[in-house]
Amino acid sequence: MPAKSKAQQKAAGAALAAKRGDAKKSSLKGASKSMYESMSEKQLDEFASTKRKGKPQHAAKSRSKSASSRSSARKARKTSTARKTWSRRKSSR
């Protein structure tokens, strides 16, 4: 599976270097450290060998379904509250 972003490709390269013994494991941080622990050398090689051209610097985070439904519900509540307020103002005239 190829890397989705330049940052992911770089992290895989750092983890691969540590796995092969070219770099120290203690120098790894964040994503590269978790990649080192959870992926095989072959998987890291696939990620690290991905071409960077056309890749975004960072992969876009996908919004979870529950987060988008919460924001939709929030918008609906605001709209209905605004309508109630408007109708109260209109009827009091």
Structure, described:
This protein has 93 residues and is mainly alpha-helical. It has one domain (6-57, 66-91). 63% of the residues lie in helices and 0% in strands. It has four helices and no strands. It has helices at residues 6-20, 30-38, 41-48, 65-91. Helix 1 (6-20) packs across helix 2 and helix 1 packs antiparallel against helix 3 (41-48). It starts with 5 loop residues before the first helix and ends with a helix.
Count of distinct structural domains: 1
End-to-end Cα distance, whole Å, is: 66 Å
Query: What is the percent of helical residues?
Result: 55-70%
Structural class, judged by helices and strands? mainly alpha
What does the radius of gyration come to?
A: 24 Å
Overall mean pLDDT: 79
Poorly predicted tracts of residues: none
Question: What does the overall shape look like?
Answer: rod-shaped
> What's the β-strand tally?
0
β-sheet strand percentage: under 5%
Number of helices: 4
Q: Order of SSEs, N→C? A: HHHH
Largest sheet: none
What are its keywords?
93 residues, 4 helices, mainly alpha
Describe this structure in a few short sentences.
This protein has 93 residues and is mostly helical. It has four helices and no strands.
List the helices and strands and how they pair.
Elements: H1 6-20, H2 30-38, H3 41-48, H4 65-91
Helix pairs in contact: 1-2, 1-3
